[in-house]
Protein 1
Amino acid sequence: MYKSLFFACLFISLTSFGQKGNKYDSTVKMGKAGYRVTCMNRSIDRNTLNIRPIGFKSETREASLELRGRVVSTEIDDLNNDGFPDIIIFVMDAKDKLSLFSVGSRDNERIEPIYFPDITNDMQLSKGYRGQDEYKLVEGVLFRKFPIFESDTTIKTPTNKVRQIMYRVMTGDQGSWRFKSFKSFDLVAD
C-alpha cells in the first residue's frame, strides 16, 4: 500500500513539474521600455499569449490572443527604425514548424501587430520550400533560412542548398507595418 501511494505521489509530482516547465515567461527591454511575454504552453493546439508593455505610457494595455503552438523564444529590436522597441515571438506548432508573431510600438503609446507574409504566396521564394525554417534577428533585419527540396514531393531529403531571405519592416497600407523581403539567395548547405 505504501509502495503504491509513493508511486502515485511521484507520478503526480512529475506530471505537475512537466507542466510548469512548459510555461514561457520572459521580459525583454531596450533601455527602459520593453515587453513581458507569458504563455502557459499547456496544449500545442491552444494557448493564450499575453504581451504586457513595460515603460510605455500608462494607458497602454496588455494584449492577449489565442495561438496554436507553444512560445519558444522572444527577441527585441527596433524593427521599423522609429526609436521604439518591437518584438518577435517565435512559436512552434504540433508539426515542429517554427513561425513568428511580431508586435511594434507606436511611440510607446500603444502596440500594433507587424504582419509577416506567408511564403507560399510568393512563387519565387517558395520554390522548393517545405518548412524547417530557422530565424535570426540582426540589427533590425530578420534572416530566414530553410533547406531547398526538389519539386518532386516523393523525394524526402533536401538538396544540398539552403535559401536565405532577408526581411525589413516597412509601412504598409493605411500605416500598418509589414515584413518585406528585400534580398534572397541560395547557398550550398554547410
Protein 2
Amino acid sequence: MSATATKSARKKSTLIPLGDRVVVEREESEQRTSGGILLPDSAKDKPARGTVVSVGEGKCDSKGVRHPLQVKPGDRVVFTSYAGEAFKVGDDELLLMREDDILAILG
C-alpha cells in the first residue's frame, strides 16, 4: 500500500460490540487555545467527544426482550471523561463503552 493512502482507503479492522456496548472513535484534541497558544502534547486534555463507529444489539430486560440502543453509527456523542476501555485496532484507537456512559448526542 502506498504511503499516500487515505484513512478511509485503508482496510479497517473491526471491533464488534455485544449487548449494550458501543464503539466510539475519540475526536482529536485541540492544537491551540482560543488565544492562539500552541499546546504541547502533555498539556492536551483528551476530549470527551467522539463518533460512534458501531453498536451492539441492545440490552435484554428481565423478560428476555431486547431493547435497541438510542445511538447509531455516525452519531457524534459526548461521554463521561473516564468512559470505556481503549483498544488499538490497526492504526485507530477506539473506545469500547456502555451506552450508559454516553451523556448526549451532538446535533
